[in-house]
Specification:
174 residues; 0% strand; mainly alpha; 68% helix
Length: 174
Amino acid sequence: LEQLLGVDWAVRNYTPPQQTNTYQNVILATLEVNPVLQGLTAEKKQAVAAILGMQLESPEGTPDFAKTLADEKARWAKVAEVLSIEQLEAAKLHFSSHADDLRGEFDSLPGFDTQPEEFRKIFRATEAIDEQLYALGERNDTEAQQRREKLLAERDAAIRATLSPARFEQYARL
C-alpha cells in the first residue's frame, strides 16, 4: 500500500502540505491562457517556466546592473532556443522586466489606458533603449548623464512615433 498510496496512507486526519503559487506556477498558468503561447507542448511550457522561474541572485549592497542585465539576457537567450520569434515576444510581453517597468509606468498615468496593440508597439520601440538606460545604472558622471539624456530623447521619439499625436500629447501631459 505504501507504494500505491505513499507512506502516510494510514495516518488519520492528515492534511497534505498546501501547494503555493510559486512563480513557476504563475508562469505556467499564464502560458495556458495566452493565445500565442497556449499551443505549446507541455514539455515546452515546463521548459519555459523552468528557465523564467530561475531566481536571479540578488547581490548584497550596491546592485550590479551589468550582471543583472547579463543574467536577464542569458535567460531570454535560453527561452529563445525553445520558442518561435512570435512566441518569444509574447513571453517577453508577460515576463520581462522591461514589460513590467513599462506596465508600471503606464499604470501610474491616471486615465491613460493603453490598448494591447499600442503597448506591444511601445514595447518593441523602447526595449533596446530601456536596456541601454538600465545598463547605465546609477552612474552619475558627465558621460553617463549625457548618454542618459540622449537615450531619454530617443525613447520619447520612439513613443511619439508609435502613438497618435493626440495620444502622445496625453502621455506627455500625464
